[in-house]
Amino acid sequence: MIKKNLMITSKLLKSICIIGLVCITQTVSAQISITEIQPITFPTVLQNSGSSTTVVVNWKGAIGNSTNSTLLDNDYSQGRYYITSDSTAPIDINFISLANEPLIQLKNFRVRYKNVTYKTFPILGLENPGAAGEYIDIGAKVVANKKSSQGAKFLQYSLSVEEQ
Q: How far is the C-alpha of 60 from the C-alpha of 58, rounded, in Å?
């Protein structure tokens, strides 16, 4: 699960050995900052009887067409994160479900970064957001098996951004 203002640091150790006698080591580091603006949230819905219940919130924050249940509220939003970096190295983005609720799947992830929508993960070699930063918007589908229990569900996911 992403925590607000999470700082991820990657370190690369460069070593220069001269004639096998002297070894000079220099540590180089780069830092990515991820700020959670809002997590993806899904509305309260009426569970279908006899079939799975599907709810889609797309990366724009709208309810998707494959939603097959009655919404009981309008409390939903796309996930939004702001990332910055102090380097220019390409980045990798990964988005996965932590599968923490029995009989409920969080799937069909969509990540929007720099005006491109991605649906397979990990995404490798993307342009670095730089110090000015960029937003990442996310959407997903929730499918609750017809045998899943009623009540509040707290689906968890992991969004990771790493420099190469």
A: 5
Task: Tell me which residue has tokens 């968890």.
Answer: 156
b/e sequence 82-108, b meaning 16+ C-beta within 10 Å: ebbbebeeebebebebeeebeebbbeb
Contacts for 77 with CB less than 8 Å, ≥ 6 apart: 38, 40, 41, 57, 61
Where in the chain are the domains?
36-163
**Amino acid identity at 24:** I
pLDDT digits (tens, 9 = 90+) for 82-107: 999 999 999 999 999 999 999 999 99
| Of residues 68, 76, 12, the one with CA closest to residue 43 | 76
Distances (CA, A) of 157 to 20, 72, 106, 136: 48, 24, 8, 15
pTM exceeding the 0.90 threshold for the entire prediction? no
